[in-house]
Amino acid sequence: MLNEVKITDNSRIKEFHFPFGQIYFGGYVIYKGKYYHMDNIQEVFQEEGFFENHLNDLIGEFVFIKAVQNELFAIVDRKRSIPLFYYKEGSRWIVTDKISLQKDKPLHQTAAKEFLITGFTANEKTLYEGVYQIEAGSYIRIHEEGKVDKQEYYQFYHHPVNKDIEEFSEELKTVLLAVFEDLIKRLINKAPILPLSGGYDSRIIALLLKEYGIEDISSFTYGKRENKEALVSKDIANRLGLKWDFIEYKKEDWHRWYHSQEWKDYVNFAVNGSSMAHLQDWPAVREILAKQDKDYVFIPGHSGDFVAGSHLAYEITMDREFTLDDVIQFSLQKHHKLWEMDRGIHQSGEDVLAEIRRSFGDLPYETNEQASALFEYWDWRERQAKFIINSVRVYEFYQKSWEIPLWDDRLMEFFKTVPVELRFKKFLYDYTLHQMYPDYFPKPEKPAAVKAVSLKEKYGILYKPAKKLYNQKKLFERYYTEPMEWYGIYKSYPDYLKALSFKYDRIKYKQPYNINSFLAKDYIQSLEGDSI
What we know:
This is asparagine synthase (glutamine-hydrolyzing). Pfam families: Asn_synthase. InterPro entries: Asn_synthase, ASN_synthetase/amidase, Ntn_hydrolases_N, Rossmann-like_a/b/a_fold. Pathway: Amino-acid biosynthesis; L-asparagine biosynthesis; L-asparagine from L-aspartate (L-Gln route): step 1/1. Its EC number is 6.3.5.4. This protein is of the alpha/beta class. Helices cover about 40% and strands about 15% of the residues. The chain contains 22 helices and 20 strands. The strands form five sheets. A six-stranded antiparallel beta sheet has the order 2-3-6-7-11-12, with no helix packed on it. A five-stranded parallel beta sheet has the order 15-14-13-16-18, sandwiched between helices. A four-stranded mixed beta sheet has the order 1-9-8-10, with no helix packed on it. α3 packs antiparallel against α22 (about 515-525), α4 packs across α18 and α11 packs parallel to α14 (about 370-390). The mean pLDDT is about 95.
């Protein structure tokens, strides 16, 4: 058997030849305080087993493949920032960075369901039978006889320690400063540009870049003219002295953009059989680079809010005993909602539920610390490391680099030590930002440990019919009210209404949640022969 490595993007993943075999590397790592990248990474490869021996000591966004005597060893980083895939071709295994359309392989029906209701495929599956992905914080070893061993070397699962908020806050400040001190080294001779929203993440990135002496910072936002987020973004840019650009989105533009060959090419580039391409800032990036094609480095705020605890519902922080089904239900409510399945996911998606259970492994879940940790573990391994990270593909599509400092490994490690009461509503994060820059971040109030009365409890038997009417009203209105105007991907309002439900594999899907619902539907239908 002769296994093979197929790399399509030689600008991002470089091949090195050594007496013991071939090495493929992309990205960067920091080891013992030293920054290694494509131009000096050969220094560490002099130690043949460097990555295997020091994997848990490395910081960075990277991919590593070693091909030695017909054995393959392939690693992705803790965020799966550079995806890798593997599949069998005849009697040999192929490891690759790109799987594109696999017309000779049938769709994996469970994966297709997951894609429709989450925008990505769970565990090691892709949309295609027999094609697999290496998951975040994991590696595979393919032996000469064809056996594949999979190993998770990192878990974003919390193990809180006992410190007061001032100690945690000082430590978080120290970590943030260390992350940005290293980031500055990677920005030499580059032009940083920030997708600037009205939120905290892009704001702290701008402030820390300026603190470390970067003055020439560009920023942009987009949407309907005078939308609320754009107004906040412009105000922040003015206060911080950033160059600011606004890209207007109009319905008629969306229809033209969405049905262009450029969009189809981008989707083919980005989906990679595992995660939907992001629509949000694609036209903005395209427009910015058409105006001025500088050596930009895009620096979005992913995934600072998640790492800090913003996805936690109050109910999962309560001091009570939890079951595995409780944690599954929290995940379903938060992440499996792009479409409602006819008869519900518990009847129409039992295979999807089984995949959630499988991804949980043997991690504990009984206490609020454990339940919240398991919930965030799944979120990290699945949604963040597949769907959210995929937003950087738009920069790669236009051959630009990116940085995600708020998702640095050191921040992940720090927040693993923080108790759930300080992660809830990202209280510690917001508190620390206020301590660092009180003029830009208000002091947060600690969330009250009181359960709010839900609408379901408030309205009783009237809740379900009232919610149904409200959701229908919202669906019918948003074609005209969406501040990003992106429902203009459908040429007319009647066309939009026709897209509000569909059937796939004998299951009816209805109640689309947001724009990604339509993108996932259109993509899956395109694989069945219908054009987007």
